[in-house]
Amino acid sequence: MKQTRRSRALRRRGRAAGVVLAGGSGTRVGAGINKAFLPLAGRSIASWGINTLGAVQGVGILVFVVRPEDLEHARFVAARETDRPLEIIPGGETRQDSELMALRHLADRIDAGTIDTVLIHDAARPLVSHGLASAVLHAAREHGGAVPGIPVTGIAPVQGADGLAPGDPRTLDALLRVQTPQGFHAATILDAYEAAARDGFVGTDTASCAEEYTAAPVTWVRGEETNFKITYAQDLLLAQDVVTALGLRTG
Fold it and tell me: How far is the C-alpha of 242 from the C-alpha of 240, rounded, in Å?
């Protein structure tokens, strides 16, 4: 009976959609293919984040955004490496274009209220935990927007050409190394991205677009050191070490 009430509550407020972006290349990793499709402990880097988001309670739809030339790789991931149905769409020239295309892909369901929240995640962060993704979803539903982050410490602010500002009470302790997934109320973030497209605004990530075009507060939850982005070859080696050390499930 308790589970039934919970299920009804989820249906009333809609489901969340998990969007995984894989628009990068393998250049800095030293690979000849998109790094999202490089192997990590027996399966592709992208499949780790996809499966983690898909296991989060409340996430009912998964969207995988890839470069047009990577569609075959994406179909292989969907057929062989994921636990849930995967909607594959081509992305745009930039990260923001790809996010907009994902939101437009979901627009009818957002307008109908069947999707209430969107989580947007970088495929290049394969080791995001189930707990972190769940925490971001919960915070996004509670506040309207949420990002994971790790506070930056031990750095002083710079004041113009004079260098460090002595005695300045501001420090970057209040700033964050922001990670993904970033979660937002679906209708709000869709409207924000459409407005940004009309204005030609390009943000650094999902949160920057939300802050520019919405009044919704963006809160943060504590990120994880293991939720790092694979950019260089040594990052992939480190990810393999983390998988081994933590005994994570492999392919």
Answer: 5
